[in-house]
Fold these 2 entries.
Entry 1:
Amino acid sequence: MKKIVSLSLSAVLLFSCQTKNRSSGSASKPDILASHIDSTVKPGDDFFLYANGGWIKHTPIPDAESSWGIGQLVQDEIYARLKKINEDAVKEKTTAGSVTQKIGDFWKSGMDSAAVEAAKLSPLKTDFDAIDAISTTEQLITTGAALQIKGINCFFGNNVGQDDKNSDIMAFILSQGGIGLPNRDYYFNTDERTIK
C-alpha cells in the first residue's frame, strides 16, 4: 500500500511540474554541453573529440593564453563580478567602518599604483622590524603567530577543504611551510577528531 501511495504522489508531482512549465510558456534552455558535441566523430572511436569537438573547432585559444576552457570563462566571469563589486563600493557613499566602505578603501588603495610605488616596502616595515628583533624561541613563536593572523604562512599553511578520501567531510588541513620543501598535507577530520 505504501508503494502505491508513494508512486501515485510521485506521478502527481511530476505531472504538476510539467503542467506548470507548459503553462508558463517558458522554453527550456538548450543543453550547453550538447552544443559542443561533434557528431562527425563516432563516440566509440574517440569519445573526447566526440564530446568536445564542437568546442575545440569553434573556440580558439586566445593569443594571450596558453590554454582555454569553460573553466577559464567561469573564472573570467567571477573576476568581472568581483571587479564590479569593488568599483561600486568605491563609488558608494556609506557609513565609516561599514563593510562596503572597507572594500572600497581596499580596492582604491590597490589601484593607486603611484602611491604603491612611492611607498615601496614601508608598509611592511613593522613586520620586518619584528622579524629582525627575534632573538629567542618565544619571540619566534610570537612573531610567527602574529604573521599567521595576517595570513602569512611562515611555518605552516592551513585551510578547510574537502577530505581527499571522503568528500562528504570538511577537514582542517595543515600543510608544511618553508621554502623549497615538498608540501605534505595533514588532514584533521572534524567529525572524528583524528589526523590522517
Entry 2:
Amino acid sequence: IDTLETQFDHKSLYLTLRLQELRQGAGLPMRLDTLVSLRQYTALGNCYWGEDKPFFFDNAIQNTLLMYRLLRAEGSYDALLRKTRDYLLEKRGGGHWRNTYESGLILRALLPDLLTAKGALPTPSLTVNSIPIDSFPYDAQAAPGSPLQASQKGSLPVYFTAYQQTWNADPQKVEGTFIVRSQFKKNGQILESLTSGEADTLEVEVLVKGDADYVLVEVPIPAGCTYYNKSQDYWNAESHREYLKNKLSIFCQSLTKGRHVFTVELMPRYSGRYQLNPAKAEMLYFPVFYGREGEKRIRID
C-alpha cells in the first residue's frame, strides 16, 4: 500500500477510495472524516461522492459505491448509509441503471442491507390519514385546512410531498433548489431595451444546487413579442419544448449540479413598456423544490 501511495503524484478520488479500502481490509489505521466531508447532495437530500462523469471509473456511481462499502465496514454511519443507499436507488429513476456492470455492483452492495432474514424485499407502503397506500405513484387532494398525517413502512424509500397552489399577484425572487436569472441579449451584450422588428435572445440561466430529475423550466414571453423560431434544443439536457402563447415550457429529464443556460429567440413587434414575468424552474413531481426570478420590465422602441 505504501508503494501504491507513492506511485501516484495526483490521486483521483477513485484511487484514494480504493487505497482506503485496501487499508481497511488489511486492518491498517485509517480515518473517514475527510472523505465524509466531501459528500454532495441531490435535490432530494441524498448524498454521493464525485461527479457524474461518462468515464468507466472515477464517476459518481463508482465513488459512491466505494464510500458505501467503507462506511458499512466502519460502522456507526447508519444515517449516512441510508442517504447513500437512497442516492443509488434514485439513480435508477429512469427504470434502470446505466449498464449491466454498474447494475451488478449496485445490487451486490445494496441487497444485503435491503433483504429481510427470509430473503424477501419488503414492499414499501405509505399511510396518509389512516389510508394505506402500496401502489405508486399516488396522488390525492385534501380539503383546505384539514390535518395531514403520513407514515412509511419498508426499507425502500417513498418520496412524499404536499403542496398548495395560490395566485401570487406580487411574486418576489426566490433562490431555493434552483437560482434563476433571465435577461435579453444580443451578440453577447445585455439589452436594456428592444427594437421592434429586430430579433433578440431571451436567456434564462438556471443554477442547480443539487442533481435534480424531471425539471420544468418556464420562460414567460413579454406581451409585445412573438417567437422568432420554435426550435427543439435536445443538446442542452432538454427533452422537449412546448411553445405556448404566454410562455415557453422546457422539460428536462435530468439537470446535474451546476449552471445551465436556456435561450429562446423572440421578435419584438409592438412598442411600449411590458412586464417580463418571472422565469421559474421547479421539479415536476416535487414543486416545493423550485427557484424563481423577480419581476422585470422591458421597453420596446
